[in-house]
Amino acid sequence: MAVEVRVLKEAAAGERRVAATPETVKKLIAAGARVLVERGAGDGAGFVDAAYADAGAGLVDAQGRDSADLLLCVQPPSPDAIADFKTGATLVGVLQPTADAARAEALQAKGIQAFPLERLPRTTRAQAMDVLSSQAGMAGYKAVLIAAQLAPRFFPMLTTAAGTIRPSKVLIVGAGVAGLQGVATAKRLGAQVEGFDVRPETREQIESLGGKFLDLGVSAAGEGGYARQLTEEERALQQQRLADHLKGIDVVVCTAAVPGRPAPKIITTAMVDGMKPGSVIVDLAAETGGNCELTRPGETYAHHGVTIAGPLNLASLGAVHASEMYARNVLNFVALFVKDGALQFDWDDELLAKTVWPERPAAANAAA
């Protein structure tokens, strides 16, 4: 009997993405799977039930999840939802199992074989499965658009009958996927863009997108391409120079994040106090505490004339393209073990072995 794959309807507030599109459903069916999509699962991203049915999927209600061998989601299901899953089923999504004790307990109680995609090794082979990168790109894009909306000024330089309008000065903090997308988006909008990162090797990437690398004269270059820990003296010098520079910046977009850890605090209260009234800070890292000390996750407010926004789940604002990218990431990952209509796990494959949770003992992998 063909493996049953179920696409869950997301339950998190404000979540509009979906873990499979009609395009990826067709490919799962071509791999021999029987695909069931919960009614309304794709509505928020513009993928209606009829499109899934035309792709060959069955449409079902949220009940009966205990028959699915493989369940696909974006955000982690609740403990109550997990309790309804089939014992020993496989679950794929951004699951963060250790972030919630009740969720971890529910997964273990049902013997769920979870693949939290945020654990996927960041290797060249895994790029087509990297949900963190694909969703960060959308988040970086949306963060700059939010900043442009909140800013009480134009981004581009304009020559008008009323005089010349100077371009806004935008600083993107962090040069990961989200930050680089932010640099590119702000540049397209006509702003004067700078990018800052503690890794000096990001200079070339920032400059290739039309931004200027903000060099504060303190290098955190370490071995193997990783940043090293700054000394207290270096950190103090860096913060003072950044504080001085922020006095002339109109918009700051913060994107620095470390998977599985709280976001690093980069913009202090004193720095914000030194910024000019009318400035804007959009903190993309709000979900993990924020890069700015004053960020309030999910809120936008003014602090001494500086607008500070801490938007959450920005990728969901671009639900159509975010879902298309996410669904392709998921398809490429599950293709590692959905073969000929069955689940076939090769535990010698590091992408499976290093992503699965709970981790499998080495002896178990050898036995498998």
From TrEMBL:
Pfam families named in the record: AlaDh_PNT_C, AlaDh_PNT_N
EC number: 7.1.1.1
InterPro entries xref list: AlaDH/PNT_N, AlaDH/PNT_NAD(H)-bd, NAD(P)-bd_dom_sf
Residues forming coiled coils: none
SUPFAM superfamilies in the record: Formate/glycerate dehydrogenase catalytic domain-like, NAD(P)-binding Rossmann-fold domains
Domain Alanine dehydrogenase/pyridine nucleotide transhydrogenase NAD(H)-binding: 148-310
UniProt domain Alanine dehydrogenase/pyridine nucleotide transhydrogenase N-terminal: residue ranges: 6-139
Top-level EC class: translocase
SMART domains: AlaDh_PNT_C, AlaDh_PNT_N
Catalytic activity reported: NAD(+) + NADPH + H(+)(in) = NADH + NADP(+) + H(+)(out)
Function: The transhydrogenation between NADH and NADP is coupled to respiration and ATP hydrolysis and functions as a proton pump across the membrane.
Protein's UniProt name: proton-translocating NAD(P)(+) transhydrogenase
Species in which this protein is naturally found: Pseudoxanthomonas japonensis
UniProt lineage: Bacteria, Pseudomonadati, Pseudomonadota, Gammaproteobacteria, Lysobacterales
